[in-house]
Amino acid sequence: MKTIHPSLTNDVLLAWYADDFTGAAAVMEVLEFSGIPSMLFLQPPTSDQLKRYPKLRAVGVASTARTKSPQWMDEHLPSIFKQLHELDPALIHYKICTTLDSSPEIGSIGRVIEIGSDLFHPQMVSVLVAAPQMGRYQYFGHLFARSGDKTYRLDRHPVMSRHPVTPMTESDVAIHIGNQSKRLDIDYVPLNFSAQNQQFQPPRAGKIKTLTFDCTDEISESLIGEFIWAKRHENPFIVGSQGVEYALVQHWRDTGALPTAEPHLGIGKAKNIVAISGSVSPTTAEQIAWSKDNGFASISFDATSVFRGQTAIDTEIEHCINCAFDALSNNLDPLIHTAEGPDDPAVGKFRTALAESSLGMSQASEIIGQSLGIILQRILSQSGIRRAIVSGGDTSGYATHQLGIFALSALAPTIAGAAICKAHAEGEMDGLELALKGGQMGSKDYFGWIRDGGGAR
Question: What are 318-327's pLDDT values in tens digits?
């Protein structure tokens, strides 16, 4: 059996904290399927929890920080970062989305860099957003992202330019993040840099030196991974997508420290499956349309109920659960969703209700996610079904908490960033097979792929 080189077998190679749940699971997937034992926790793990898994070499914590304000970050992130630091990892990674979802008011990456720098005092903060395996590329400082069979500059991307909370109007990564903090001295590193000989100008007085990295392929990944790993003592705090882990793994493989892992197989077809979706992306719309023609029952959750009080929410929850069991009795798999894409009339109705309500978007999204989680928990509990899907990064965070899960481990790959996971819980959800995916991620037949058990294609 192939083994990891001794240089990589210290207790914890990396600890990561992710600003959404699907992204958190994506990091675990990269590491676990590369041969590095990893686990994702929903809260910073206790010492007793870690003792159950003595072979772990990477530990992650999932959050919903992408939906939070800088004030929330000030109150929560320092203590969480300190808890991760107590694990004595070689690197601490704040994981962000590959499409840079953030703004000065919501999910501020700039504020995260400030907090991490004040705690860990790095000489510089490396920011790697690109992940070529995900169709995300940075070139001349600008981020590009694939949608379907085409690749777009981020500010022209058909999904991200229309994001309901953080629409992307700027593709230059340094400018976008720099607009979120006045303390950053930020620039980009081109593709042809030398990891060993590159010299960087010191930061301007009172500023935090921050570098974003161009990345388009395995060669640039390996160079960046080499730089991050070589500079881990001076710069233990890094920010980026799962591209950080792809880069580290590529470097470790190129140097022989990490052997190439064997392909991971699927886990077999499930008799039944339950899916919930809080995403309004065109990608999810295509997946729902495919599912309706392939054994799933489309069940609409009226998201405007969150503006009409708890009785209305409870009524909508009961309605969706009853529809789900009707579907199961007809040998169909229930798929409960808030909308079938951005052009669904339900989206317009929700926005109108939001404008007329005293609730903010963040609070409304949280209530919707929690409600979908309650629906999922009750269906699973009452039916005994042991496989489920949650679509939508923010939805995944809020819904997963309703299941009583404390951690996830990777079971089977699908598309990059949306594997089937095993749930770890104290109660009945222990062992649940759960797939979490971002709204813009996945093949058209993704829901069926999960039902069939995943596995590399």
Answer: 999 999 999 9
